[in-house]
Amino acid sequence: MTRIDRRALFTSGAAAALLAATGASLADTPKSGGVLRIAVPRDDSLDRLARGAVFDTLTEIAPDGTLRGELATAWQTDSEAWVWTFDLRADAVFHDGVALTAGDVLAVLSEVGRAEALAPDRIRIELAEANPGLPFLLADTRFVITRDGQSVSPLQQANGTGCYRVERAEDGRHFRGRRVEGHYKDGQAGWLEAVDIIVIPDPVVRAEALRDRYVDVSVLPTAQGLRGLGGVRFFPSESDMALAISGTVGLPRRIGRGAPLDDGRIAERWWMA
Length: 273
What we know:
The chain is an alpha+beta fold. The protein contains eight helices and 15 strands. It folds into two domains: about 5-55 and about 150-270, 3-Layer(aba) Sandwich (D-Maltodextrin-Binding Protein, domain 2), CATH 3.40.190; about 65-150, Alpha-Beta Complex (Dipeptide-binding Protein, domain 1). It is elongated, with a radius of gyration of 19 Å. This is Putative D,D-dipeptide-binding periplasmic protein DdpA.
């Protein structure tokens, strides 16, 4: 596990301590609008955050660790967890305007088991061996749902059902996502009007970009260059950190701890305060 990975396994307890120390409230209500600007190193952070904004999976692990449906509304299995059925959302639409179908899901899940469509909004998966944890597995970013099995790259052509569509992007350099109007998560996620992610390899320059207000969040290994700067929060703490965050950014009650960068879902879970 990399340094950033370790520091990004945030806990709700750390979030509470951070917000208490900075005077922010855990009960702050998300606000719609604004552009969140994030500076990341040259690693997988750009891809992780962009895919979390653009794509959905069948299931999602919430920040509190519980499992919930995303593109799946319900699922069930037999007594041996060998055969599974998943019911799909009827209101999910790809960013090119085409509605989600069972065929799109089948194209992604072929490596999991033998999958077939029982109806336009229902699929059946027969596994090679029993797996009671399959719904948790399908929340992994390996199983983001693309249209008819399209590739998730290049970013400029990414076509998902997530809260943000690609406005412009270049792999390894930058990404801008624009909020999708009338998304099925409206009122629950996707508060930002847009999100900008830029790769800045040098941590010193990333810190300077935050200090000079060119970005709102910087992925950083230390607080060097930012100590004593009013309004900046260090997460999960100044002595053991992964992110430096401007006071203009609103944080959710809980930060996902299953993967770095709020499980890669900063774009849909955070907001501009």
